[in-house]
Amino acid sequence: MGFDEQVKRNTKVESDVIIGVIDTGIWLESESFNDKGFGPPPKKWKGVCEGGLNFTCNNKIIGARYYTDDENNARDTVGHGTHTASTAGGNLVKQASFFGVAQGNARGAVPLSRIAVYKACSLSGCRSDFILSAFDDAISDGVDILSVSLGSKIPRIFELDVIAIGGFHAMLRGILTSNSAGNSGPSPATTGSTAPWLFSVAASTTDRLIIDKVVLGDNTTLTPDIAAPGVDILAAWPTSISPTGSRLDTRSVKYNIISGTSMSCPHVSGAAAYVKTFHPHWSPAAIKSALMTTAVPMNATRNEDAEFSYGSGFINPVKALNPGLVYDASEDDYIKMLCSIGYTSEKIKFIAGKISSCPSKYNGTAMDLNYPSMAMTNSTKEAVFTRTVTNVGVANSTYRATVASPSYVIVSVEPKVLSFKSLNEKQSFIVKVSLKDPPGEVLVASASLVWSDGIHSVRSPIAASFWNIS
C-alpha cells in the first residue's frame, strides 16, 4: 500500500485514536497488544473493561466487553478477532513470522492507536442482538473507527441488516464503520452489507490480483467501495489455538497467515484511522471519499466484473491525506436515498432509530446520493448523477474535468471547470452517462471522471453492467 514504517505520522493524535473491533475477542498476551510506552487512555474514552474471567485491559487494549453466552470472557477462542485487531492497530513487532514464512516486522496501520474489543462472535457464530449491542456500546464508549469483519450468510435489506443499522447509528456520531464485502476466509462472515454509509471492502493480493466480488442491480451505489490486501496476511494469533483450528493440529503460533475480505477490512479501518489523525473533524463520508478518490486504478482486464469486484481501486492511505476534494454526505442525504428506493418513514425508523419523514414531493433517485462513485446498468438509457464536492486542498484553486471511457459509454460533465476561492467551499456538477451496444463479450464497462487542479487528481469510477447479452 506504500505505507512503510517511515510514513508521515501525527503521533500525538494517533495515540488518542480508538479503534473499536467487533469480532471474536482478542488474545491479550500477543506482543501486538503490549502497552509498553503507552500513557493512560484518552480523556474522551467513556468505556469500561468488562472482559470477564481472567481478562485485564491495559493502556493498549483500553476496553473490552463480551456478549456471547457460551464463553465467559472477551478472550479470542477463534483467532479471527486477534488477527483483524492487530492488522488495524497492532504494535510494531520485529521478526514476526509463521514458522519462518513472511518473516519481518509486523505492525498495524496505526500502531500507537488504542483498541476497544467487543466480542459479539464465538465458535457458535454471531447473533444479531449481540452485534447490535456491540455497536451501541462502542458508540457510547467513544470509539473513533469501527472495524467489523462480519456479515450474514445471505444479503439482507437494510432494515434487517444489523451491520447496516449499527453502522447508520455510528455514522450519526461521526464514526466510520469498515465492513467486509463478502468473505473467502475463515470468518463468521460470508456476505457483507451494501449500505452506502458503511465502507465496503474487497480483498486483493498485494500484486493486485482480485479474489472477491459483489454485484448489485441498477441505480445503486457501486460496491465494494475499495480493495485492500486480503490474501496471505500475517497477523497476531492466539497461542491457545492451532493455526488451522483443527483438533489434530497441535502446533502453537504467535502469528498466522490467513486470507479473506475479513483481512482486508482492518487494513481499511486502519487507513481510515490514519486519515482521521490528520483530519479529526472530517465526517465518515469525507474520510471514505478521500480514500476512494485517491485509490490506485486497477486493471479491469484481469477481472470481468471490474469495479463491481474492486470498487474505486487499491487503497493508498498516504495519498488520502491530501485528496483535494471530497464528496461529503450527511444523515439527510442517506435518508433521501432510502426514500428514493421506496422506504417509508416507518421502515426508515428501523434503521435510524427515529421517525425521519421523506421530503414532500421528493422525486430523487439513488443515483443522487453524493457518492464518490457512479454505477448503472444498460436497462437505463441515460443516467444522470448530481454531485457536490467540498474543497479541502488549496483555498484558491481551479479543477478541470477529464473523462476516460470506451466508445460505447458516452459521458458528459457540466460544468467542466470548478473554481474555488476558499477552503470548505462547495461546488456542484452533473454527470450524464449513456450506453451504446458494446462488443458481445463485454459484461462491465469501465469509465472514470477525474477532477484535477494540477496538484490533486480526484478520481471517481463510473461503471456500467450489461445484461441479456446474446
Automatic annotation (TrEMBL):
Q: Does the keyword Hydrolase apply?
A: yes
**Endoplasmic reticulum among the record's keywords?**
no
Instruction: Return the InterPro entries for the record.
Output: Peptidase_S8/S53_dom (IPR000209), Peptidase_S8/S53_dom_sf (IPR036852), Peptidase_S8_Ser-AS (IPR023828), Peptidase_S8_subtilisin-rel (IPR015500), Peptidases_S8_3 (IPR034197), SBT (IPR045051), Subtilisin-like_FN3 (IPR041469)
Molecular function GO labels: serine-type endopeptidase activity
Entry's Gene Ontology BP terms: proteolysis
Q: Which domain of life is it from?
A: Eukaryota
Peptidase S8/S53 domain location is 15-312
Query: Which residues does UniProt mark as catalytic?
Result: 23, 80, 262
Task: Identify the keywords attached in UniProt to this record, alphabetized.
Answer: Hydrolase, Protease, Serine protease, Signal
* Subtilisin-like protease fibronectin type-III domain boundaries: 368-463
Q: Kindly give the SUPFAM superfamilies that the UniProt entry links to this protein.
A: Subtilisin-like
- One Pfam family from the record: fn3_6
Gene3D superfamilies given for it? Answer: 2.60.40.2310, 3.50.30.30, Peptidase S8/S53 domain
PANTHER family per record: PROPROTEIN CONVERTASE SUBTILISIN/KEXIN (PTHR10795)
Q: Which family does it belong to?
A: Belongs to the peptidase S8 family.
| Entry protein name | Cucumisin
